[in-house]
Design a protein that fits this description.
about 250 residues; alpha+beta; 5-stranded antiparallel sheet; 12 strands; globular
């Protein structure tokens, strides 16, 4: 009787141990499964987060590009027309075609307006710095034509821009900035076209920057003043302003 009792008790103990072991294995398996799912969930979340970050960066980049492109069309000016080296910096704002009507015939000019910053240790005038670094050409279709800088006192004939033309010939001290207007004559006798809509700025040295093509900002017609240099009798007869001016970097290196 005692033996039966002992065998029965031993069987219950063994059964209890077996059940406990199975339960432990089941729990461990469940934990492993849960852990595996958690890892996959975390990895998936990380991937989504990484992808979201990539998209965000891409969106920011696209937004910046869009903003830059939009700014290029504001105010009808040629933003992006910048050239620089260690001694100076030129920013071209726009180009205006001007016809001066007189009793002895019409004269045609291209007026380049911009800003010059002197980074050199010596003073220099914007006109000299500009002409020493940049060649200006008019572009008609696929053809280009070199233009010659006007060095005479043309401000007496172009009085609406008189002060800026004078500023372009004044010395700029080191670390100072000045606005300028530089004048090029469009002489049909030398092959120039008076109705050019684009101008090309080509650096003599590639280190100064890349070639730039600028669309004409506006076309103006004024009357030639009298022989009195102090006369301000100019008046606009017509203005043909473009809605916007654009610039494009020349891809031909």
């Amino acid at each position: 009787m005692k033996k039966r009792y002992l065998l029965g008790a031993l069987g219950l103990v063994l059964l209890g141990l077996g059940t406990s072991a199975c339960s432990s294995q089941t729990n461990n398996s469940s934990k492993q499964t849960t852990t595996s799912k958690s890892k996959k969930s975390i990895e998936k979340t990380d991937e989504n987060s990484s992808e979201s970050t990539k998209r965000s960066r891409k969106d920011l980049s696209t937004g910046a590009d869009t903003q830059a492109n939009n700014s290029n069309s504001n105010d009808g000016k040629a933003y992006g027309g910048n050239f620089q080296d260690s001694k100076g910096y030129i920013a071209i704002d726009n180009v205006t075609n001007v016809t001066v009507k007189g009793s002895d015939g019409d004269d045609h000019y291209a007026l380049v307006q911009g800003t010059f910053s002197n980074n050199d240790k010596e003073s220099v005038d914007p006109t000299s710095f500009f002409s020493n670094h940049l060649k200006v050409m008019e572009k008609v279709g696929k053809a280009t034509h070199d233009l010659v800088l006007v060095t005479t006192d043309i401000e007496n004939e172009l009085t609406p821009w008189e002060n800026q033309i004078k500023e372009g010939r004044k010395k700029v001290e080191p670390n100072m900035t000045s606005n300028f207007v530089i004048v090029y004559k469009l002489d049909p006798a030398n092959g120039a076209k008076t109705n050019a809509t684009h101008y090309v700025f080509d650096p003599y040295d590639s280190k100064f920057g890349k070639s730039l093509t600028v669309k004409v900002y506006e076309s103006k017609t004024i009357k030639k003043s009298s022989n009195n240099a102090g006369s301000n009798s100019h008046s606009d007869e017509s203005t043909d302003a473009n809605s916007s001016a654009d610039t494009s970097n020349d891809t031909d290196d």
